[in-house]
Amino acid sequence: MDFTTLIDADTLRTVPASTDLLFVDCRFDLADPSAGERAHAQAHIPGAVYAHLDRDLSGPVTAATGRHPLPDPAVFAEILSRWGIAPSTQVVAYDASGGVIAARLWWMLRWLGHARVAVLDGGLAAWCAAGGSLDRSVAARQPTRFVAEPETGAAVSTAELADLLEAGGCLLVDARSAERFEGRNEPIDPVAGHVPGAVNFACQANLSADGRFLGRDALRSAWARLLAGRPAEAIVGMCGSGVTACHNLLALEHAGLGRGRLYPGSWSEWIRDPTRPVARGPA
User: Fold this and answer.
1) Is residue 169 part of a domain?
2) Residue 203 falls in the annotated catalytic set
3) Domain range holding 120?
């Protein structure tokens, strides 16, 4: 029994006890980067390990990168090995923010060739609402040797994106809020606006009021309207730094429409070069 997009707390109850199941706690707060780790130390799903967005799910920031560049595959594979992830391991990523951070781990594991990974729909709140227990113990996992096999073409560089846009070869979808996309308010990056040619689909539109993903039919309808007859493979997802864009890619795949690609550098990398064009206002 493999889960490769979303899994809900009730379904987790049906997973056989013999399954090699690993929970990964991805809670994170951009305004307080240590908050998620502190929360994990206080209480987490039993057996969960903690993934820090800056330290574990991102590589070093340089003058040319965005705020959360992808780590070197070999370096990330070492982390996955310490977590004891084997080919048979079913990984369940969760957070407390609608899956927007957990989806980054989901995408990264798929990028490196591990398909058995799903995001806990509704996150920690859904787990607790379903009667799931919490504890403070430190997970003891047997280390493995994770072999990274990066998927060619899954990630798009800034140079590749510029070429695709010039040729009309992609549908660039920005997962940020409308006010950030349109340049009306930019609380994080030094330049406001969006990449010319991009369209806006705020990742929060994938969720219902309770923080869970919309049903498959609703997601399929929303994303099919955006695609307007194009295949899912035409989509390149972006956001501020290549994190919440993964939420859109998860929704797209969970809807059964196929797989898009990720622009990991996203807005924070695009604006590193002041000669790159910037647009403001609606798409």
Assistant:
1) yes
2) no
3) 6-129
